[in-house]
Amino acid sequence: MEPTSNDIDHQIDREYALTTRHLSLAYDGTLIVEHLDLAIPAGQITTLVGPNGCGKSTLLKGLARLLKPIAGTVYLHSASIFKLSTKEVAQQLGILPQSPTAPEGLTVRELVAQGRYPHQSWLQQWSTEDDRLLEQALTITSLLELADRPLDTLSGGQRQRAWIAMTLAQNTPILLLDEPTTFLDLSHQLEILDLLYDLNQHENRTIVMVLHDLNQACRYADHLIAVKAGSVYAQGHPSQVMTEAMVRAVFGIDSRILQDPVTQTPMCVPIGRKARQSQLKRT
To answer: In sequence order, which residues have a C-beta less than 8 Å from that of residue 18 and are 6 or more positions away?
Structure first.
């Protein structure tokens, strides 16, 4: 069940890491998200799903203060995110946007090191702790051997892992990731998702990510949000949200929802024209 405005008011600094109140977001004058009340549970993995163009990436940018709202606000714990300094936000919240870009010639190590910049000042420059977190981020994303390679010489999947490493090096309690498995083969997709799961389980990181794979979303999410046309169509535990009715309403396709034989989470089997024809032949 979607939380009410009163629920959010009372829980804004306890249960939720990020909340929105009457949030409206637009691109070039076109309204994408309108009057949205949303709550992101602290210490959990929240996954946003929905068709292309429904507003998932826009919402993530709004939560990260990368997109200024035309109405409403976003709260980072109990404080309006727009009243915090850029450095304060960057120390609490890391974001991997969709299709990020970097200056030409930047090496993997130089890119990942940028994740440590919010933690430095005139009095505290690069430290041994920065070195440790940089090396840790390179190690857990399997990039140590590529650390001195220019970013623009890597494959799409390797570049994606480098951007994820930079976000991890930032070492923030909240991570927002827009399609973190883009360009990755299946084994690296699972590595990244397992890594995010471990960060949540062992370090209590709040993870918010956009995923296209509904079955991966159900496997890894504690809290699933289905987005349709800039609004929340349904949210809650994957077992409550991932229904045939939701898939039909949000994605415009028929499906069968089964139980994943490995994780016992919902598993979506889409039904296309070929599947229907095969079904008709059997009957």
So the answer is: 38, 39, 40, 63, 74, 75, 76, 93, 174, 206, 208
Interatomic CA distance for residues 166 and 29, integer angstroms = 32
Please report where in the chains the tokens 């976003």 appear, as a residue: 74
Question: What are the tens digits of pLDDT across the range 218-261?
Answer: 999 999 999 999 899 999 999 999 999 999 999 999 999 999 99
Number of domains composing the chain? 1
CATH of the domain at 214: 3.40.50.300
**Which residue in 241, 234, 232 sits closest to 34, CA to CA?**
232
| Cα→Cα distances 50→28, 55, 90, 129, Å | 22, 8, 27, 39
Q: How much is the pTM?
A: 0.85
Beta bridge pairs of residue 74: 20
CB 28 within 8 A of CB 36: no
List the domain range (segments joined by +) for residue 102.
5-282
